[in-house]
Design a protein that fits this description.
- The structure holds 2 protein chains of 2 kinds.
- Chain A has a 5-stranded mixed β-sheet, with no helix packed on it. Chain A has a 4-stranded antiparallel β-sheet with strand order 2-7-6-5, with no helix packed on it.
- Chain A is 0% helix and 46% strand.
- By secondary structure, chain A is an all-beta fold.
- By secondary structure, chain B is mainly beta.
- The chains are: A mainly beta, B mainly beta.
């Protein structure tokens, strides 16, 4: 799987927007961009995914650069419950189902 | 809807003991996965299954075994526990291959081998 690069940690004030960046310069045309997050002492949970176009759901928005070499997960209003480790993951639609490669992610701290 | 359920939540094993970590899902998903997560690290795939009767190795399969006799259940077996297997174990499932659908994770089993 192609590699992603994320900052180790970020901070945000409560109720402010948060932009979590992810670089994936070796992304292929068939790679989907997935985001998961892991709250303390819990299993990862799905946040959002996309291929080329920006995506919105009830949890977040995903902005994908035109060249697809980077993407940004946007939390519109951070809450204390959003404090978690956020993982940006690429999945190749051509090579089957055997893995989500989790790096070390970005640890988001939300300041009250 | 329970989703993915793992038991037990916590366990302490002595070196050389064996145990089975249970995982069951009620979403009729074909794909199931076992991951381990060491402190401060991301998750690493141990084994996965694409359907009943079919299993395959992931990145770190040594010291573990799995079986998949039903769609719902995917137990992970540790035969001779070693301190290096101290970790948090997560089971996950998805309807189809990961690339275009979400995966659902259990709450984890925290295992300590002493």
């Amino acid at each position: 799987d192609a590699k992603t690069t994320q900052p180790n940690s970020m901070e945000s004030n409560e109720e402010e927007p948060v932009h979590l960046p992810c670089n994936h310069s070796t992304i292929s045309g068939t790679d989907y961009i997935h985001w998961y997050r892991q709250l303390p002492s819990q299993g990862p949970e799905y946040v959002i995914h996309g291929l080329t176009s920006n995506v919105n759901n009830r949890m977040a928005s995903l902005a994908i650069a035109e060249d697809r070499k980077s993407s940004t997960l946007i939390l519109h209003r951070a809450t204390l419950r959003d404090a978690a480790v956020y993982y940006c993951i690429l999945r190749d639609s051509q090579t089957g189902a055997n893995n989500l490669f989790f790096g070390t992610g970005t640890r988001l701290t939300v300041i009250p | 809807n329970a989703g993915v359920t793992q038991t037990p939540k916590f366990r302490i094993l002595k070196i050389g003991q064996s145990m089975t970590l249970q995982c069951t899902q009620d979403m009729n998903h074909n794909y199931m996965y076992w991951y381990r997560q060491d402190p401060g690290m991301g998750l690493k795939l141990i084994y996965y299954s694409v359907g009943a009767g079919i299993t395959d190795k992931g990145e770190v399969p040594n010291g573990y075994n799995v079986s998949r006799s039903t769609t719902e259940d995917f137990p992970l077996r540790l035969e001779l526990a070693a301190p290096s297997q101290t970790s948090v174990y997560f089971c996950a499932s998805s309807a189809v291959a990961y690339m275009n659908t979400e995966a659902f994770f259990g709450q984890g089993t925290r295992l300590t081998v002493v």
